[in-house]
Amino acid sequence: MTQWASKLSQSQMDALWMPYTANRQFKASPKMITGAQGNYLIDDNGRKIFDGLSGLWTCGAGHNRPEIAEAVAKQLTTLDYAPAFQYGHNLAFELADRLANMAPADINKVFFTNSGSEAADTSTKIARAYWRQQGQPTKTRIIGRAKGYHGASWGGISFGGIGANRKMWGPAMESDHLSHTLLPNNQFCKGAPNYGEELADELIEMVALHDASNIAAVIVEPMSGSAGVIVPPKAYLRRLRELCNQHDILLIFDEVITGFGRTGSLFGADAFDVVPDMINVAKQITNGAVPMGAVLAREFIYDTVINAGGADYNIELPHGYTYSGHPVACAAAMAALDILEQEKLVSRVAELSPYFEEAVHSLKGMPFVSDIRNFGFAAGFSIESYPGEPARRPYEIADAMWKKGFYVRYGGDTIQLGLPFTTEKAEIDTLINAMQDTLMGK
Ligand SMILES: Cc1ncc(COP(=O)(O)O)c(C=O)c1O
């Protein structure tokens, strides 16, 4: 009898259609997580597994934080739900104000969603609404970037740039894509690479092709996560900002991974010193404990849409979710942000990043490692593939790591690390030693 069979019936194992998962492979050899504590997951054999991706880039403050549990429990017995449309509850306004104060410059209007995908849809809908209310309704096209990930909604798979996520469905929204910035010249570069700033100039060609009168926004992750941690070339984002300004195109940063500390700054916008027009966040906002996302927008965007709303009983932006600003999610976010601030986790990431950088780059020269990239507490390894089987070797590496007691992410031809912000140096050492042994076939 297989291990899981003692706990789950065959029909239970069969019933779940797992997301972004090789269902047949998983069900043949399930990796079941039954608990978590701090920087560790616990599997169904009671093994402690170091969480090398902070869940899914979600749990930077470590798992099962009692402060979040208490806030959620209290909220559930105070106000479990409040209708999100036409009525309000204090916590949503308080959290919005807190986020507005954290975000750079005049990014001070907050629209709540439940996920990063919904934030991608919301920010691009807001971009279109903004231009329409500016009297330019033809500005609808969204420009993404190759290898970009913005979630699984129709918007996300249209302006997202990971081929495997797109080919099944075809595009839904008018979009186009800048080139990715993964350049051979930058291989094994530590931190932000030197080459590739000029790739931002492709936006000029997009404007020539589509005309700025038809382009609403550019959306990029300041640092791509899901495609294997692609750090922006120095000055690339600044150039993109300049070009968006020149051509009246809104710039959206998808900070679903980089928001709230991953880069060693509060936002990627701070780390790379560029102010976009909107910032999408999710994941770390509640430390992964309760689903939540948000779009943080600059004041002029809100003002334009709201002021064009007509009679004051009109809904200015006919958009939102039943669970936008859910009280329990707000309570979790408040507690998660308290932890981030009280434990100074963002500066902790900044302080330990050089140590992590040295550690990951010590794997240069190991078998199959064709590139290593890092920034903050994120790192990506490109892995040479078996001929015609790009996804296989990363899976095998992650599988071997799991058996050794380490969870790392595999995707495409990459292995990704996203350490909990609470990681100790000794944990970095054991993780990297295990990676080395694994790559050497030990
Ligand atoms: C940059 C980015 N945007 C959007 C998303 C989608 O978020 P969700 O899975 O919460 O919809 C992700 C998820 O990994 C992401 O990394």
UniProtKB/TrEMBL annotation:
Keyword flag Transferase: yes
Protein keywords: Aminotransferase, Pyridoxal phosphate, Transferase
Domain of life: Bacteria
EC number(s) reported in the record: 2.6.1.18
Pfam family membership, one: Aminotran_3
Molecular function per GO: adenosylmethionine-8-amino-7-oxononanoate transaminase activity; beta-alanine:pyruvate transaminase activity; pyridoxal phosphate binding
GO annotation terms (biological process): biotin biosynthetic process
Cofactor(s) this protein cannot do without: pyridoxal 5'-phosphate
InterPro entries to which the protein is assigned, alphabetical: Aminotrans_3, Aminotrans_3_PPA_site, PyrdxlP-dep_Trfase, PyrdxlP-dep_Trfase_major, PyrdxlP-dep_Trfase_small
PANTHER family: ADENOSYLMETHIONINE-8-AMINO-7-OXONONANOATE AMINOTRANSFERASE, BETA-ALANINE--PYRUVATE AMINOTRANSFERASE
Homology family: Belongs to the class-III pyridoxal-phosphate-dependent aminotransferase family.
Protein name: Beta alanine--pyruvate transaminase
